[in-house]
Amino acid sequence: MPLRIGIAGISGRMGQLLTEEVQAAGATLAGGTARRDVPGAKLFPTVAALAAASDAVIDFTNAATAQDTAGAMAASGKAWILGSSGLSAEDEAGVAAAAKTIAVVYAPNFAPGVNLVLALAERMAAALPGESYDAEIVEMHHRQKVDAPSGTAIGLGRAVAKGRNVNLADVMESGRNGHTGPRKPGAIGFAALRGGQVVGEHTLLFASPTEHISLTHRAFDRRAFATGAVQAALWAVQQKPGLYSMRDVLGMGTAGGASK
User: Fold this and answer.
1) What is the CATH number of the domain that holds 185?
2) Catalytic: which of 141, 162, 202, 217?
3) Could you tell me the pTM of the whole model?
4) How confident is the model at residue 179 (pLDDT cuts 50, 70, 90)?
């Protein structure tokens, strides 16, 4: 019997791409949740009802719903693929709690290329000490994006912090403005740009007095995220309860996305 995949927020841009990718993967579209009718898709009033009819639920909705969805998914016993960005520490604690009873793939980005960049970022950070190499992360997205820095930028920051064996929250500098004083040694800086319809651009820069090294990923089509998320759903239904990243799905081990 084909895997049944539900899509939270099925009427959005990502929801439409996910619908196509579920079908392309040979899985069954169980339906979704949405604020408006979606031709050809069965709609459910709640995530709990959607989960009951699915083997896995893919969720690219809103950070504001994360804790409620975490409770509903944990109670359902079904796999949860979470790609929403802008989650708070409390939201992430709720996700981690759900992962004690179900398989959760929580990633800042589901594109395979980005996850390779995360792996490289961690290794580069381990080789380039913060005392000598300043780490800066610059990201740009479309004008409609509501959170900053982006989830992928935070994922990059976590990868750098992990490579340097520090806690990102202790060294993060975001949104500099005014007279900030000299840069703190070992800080990881963030700059967020918004404009037009940019799908997603991320650059990690290591700068020393003698050289600069940059690592850049540009996304031109959201379909890369949808394809990866469906791949994660097919993988997650075979896993034991736990909090996984897209790097786990790709066989690259844990990364700065789901591993805290």
Assistant:
1) 3.30.360.10
2) 141
3) 0.86
4) very high
